[in-house]
From TrEMBL:
The gene is tsf. GO terms for cellular component: cytoplasm. HAMAP family: EF_Ts. Residues 56-197 form the Translation elongation factor EFTs/EF1B dimerisation domain. Associates with the EF-Tu.GDP complex and induces the exchange of GDP to GTP. It remains bound to the aminoacyl-tRNA.EF-Tu.GTP complex up to the GTP hydrolysis stage on the ribosome. The lineage of its organism: Bacteria, Bacillati, Bacillota, Candidatus Fermentithermobacillia, Candidatus Fermentithermobacillales. This is Elongation factor Ts. Keywords: Cytoplasm, Elongation factor, Protein biosynthesis. PROSITE patterns: EF_TS_1, EF_TS_2. It comes from Candidatus Fermentithermobacillus carboniphilus. CDD domains: UBA_EF-Ts. Gene3D superfamilies: 1.10.286.20, DNA helicase RuvA subunit, C-terminal domain (1.10.8.10), Elongation factor Ts, dimerisation domain (3.30.479.20). InterPro entries: EF-Ts_dimer_sf, Transl_elong_EFTs/EF1B, Transl_elong_EFTs/EF1B_dimer, Transl_elong_Ts_CS, UBA-like_sf. One of its GO terms (molecular function) is translation elongation factor activity. It is found in: Cytoplasm.
Length: 199
């Protein structure tokens, strides 16, 4: 196994924001492969985030973002567990990045669970009829509809959207990674997006 140097640990910490010992362990587990170590920490972070998801988040910030053309603005409530974390630069930066993402991607809902059932059913019916019109076999219609429904959720749900700064990760992954770093549950409370001349 290659030697795990302090410089390697520092680089991994800079790139992920994880603790020094976690970075050392990740590099040891992946034989010093930096990219695999990053993946290792991300997976670990997602597992930690799942454990923290049930904890109450009543502190946080209201982030206001106005796009540079002054035609789009966003108000976002991002919540965490303590005032201490709410005041950290990392938490504030996350709030700003999510607000910027909302300005760009224009989600309608926070999560899949927020989409009204009748809207989901309407979308399912449209996609089923579309698949039939394309001549798809009846036996695979449900599978096709579920795949297309995932794309629908990506369009309308903030947490399901590919993140503006890194399309390989969804907004929920970005939040989960920050939960792992900051050690607290983080929740999008609500948001409002305003566009000049919009409804």
């Amino acid at each position: 196994m290659p030697e795990i140097t302090v410089d390697m640990i520092k680089e991994l910490r800079t790139r992920t924001g994880a603790g020094m010992m976690d970075c050392k362990r990740a590099l040891e587990e992946t034989s010093g492969d930096m990219e695999k170590a990053i993946d290792y920490l991300r997976k670990k972070g997602l597992a930690q985030a799942a454990k923290k998801a049930s904890r109450s988040a009543e502190e946080g910030v209201i982030e206001a973002y106005i796009h540079h053309n002054a035609r789009v603005g966003v108000l976002l409530e991002l919540k965490c567990e303590t005032d201490f974390v709410a005041r950290t630069d990392q938490f504030k930066e996350l709030a700003r990045e999510i607000a910027m993402h909302i300005a760009w991607a224009n989600p309608q809902y926070i999560s899949k669970e927020d989409v009204p059932r009748e809207e989901v059913e309407r979308e399912e019916n449209i996609e089923k009829e579309r698949a039939r019109a394309e001549g798809k076999p009846e036996a695979v219609l449900d599978k096709i509809v579920q795949g297309r429904l995932s794309k629908f959720y990506e369009r309308v749900c903030l947490l399901e959207q590919p993140f503006i700064k890194d399309g390989s990760r969804k907004v929920r992954d970005i939040i989960a990674e920050k939960i792992a770093v900051l050690g607290e549950n983080i929740v999008v409370g609500r948001f409002a997006r305003f566009e000049l001349g919009g409804q």
